[in-house]
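To the team - zinc ion complex, inputs and output below.
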Amino acid sequence: MTVMPTCKLCGKSFDTIAELYLHLRSECNKIPRSRKCPICNARFKSIRFMRLHLINEALIDAKHMNYIISI
Ligand SMILES: [Zn+2]
Ligand SMILES: [Zn+2]
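Output:
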């Protein structure tokens, strides 16, 4: 049995983690439209920066990872 990386926000599954990251960066419309990170409360200049923060942090931080990705 193989476990597919899944976007926790919209429930979509992907073949590879790279595809999931691409999805989060470009097309997932369930990422919170906020300038404040819902996990660490960091504030950003724009919604776009917050989105990038969430995705980048997920690579290195388990809390951000658990919020947007399930593997
Ligand atoms: Zn999604
Ligand atoms: Zn954060």
